Amino acid sequence: MNTPWISDEFRYGASEQEHYERQGYCLFRQFLSPSGLLRGQTEIGRMLKSLQPGRQPDEIFSAHQQEPWIFELATQPALLDMIERQVGPNVVLWSSHLICKSPRTGREIPWHQDAPYWNVSGKLAGAIWIAFDDIAQDNGGMSVLPGWHDQGALKVRNRGQEFFSEEIDPAVLPPNPDQLKVQYTLPAGGAATHHVMIPHNSIPNLSDRWRRVLVLRYMAADGVMGAKEYPDYRSGEKFPRKFFLVRGEDVLKRGLATGLSD
Fold it and tell me: Is 143 helix (H, G, I), strand (E, B) or coil?
């Protein structure tokens, strides 16, 4: 199916890149085309019906390795043009995560930074965070602390919980984060990109609406790429992570995959 995924209204040029570099994030009210949004909503609905019993709908990891439509979306030229501005010409897709919070459910995600948790390093692009429902605070929309991506790795403290066992120590955050934060409020089909070091959080879905979001992550092809396994969202069977060269050259000649059949 040849879906025109990206809206003709989407722009990521020099001014958007400057905002991203200065503030650590950038919002796009129109990212998906109407047909791209409809197809994504339909596909996600199908996936949630096939979710392994007992698995939470925010636990669909490395979705692009399991669903060709997600790989197709992740490799759209307009999207890769944006990522190239962030990491350079040799781009690897290394992670995707479908994070769905059903009505009146979901988990609180404390203030944290992404990159310190990952076993990849090098030049990492900001995640692209794609909304398939209208997003606001009441249904678990994300918040970021603008400008705080330049603070380095912030001190963390243990929460003593199995899920998200660490959070940024409140002592190193500003005293009024709720006043300084930018709340993601986006229509379905909107998106955002945020720096891998920007502090961000979200609350559970307190509304009667879904909150379905796809996060795609990229890196430069000369970065360090750690091994990891993920569970199939339908069966729980584990599979190894692949790194996909989606633009440019495999500069270290590692034999990076270029398609799902590799």
Answer: strand
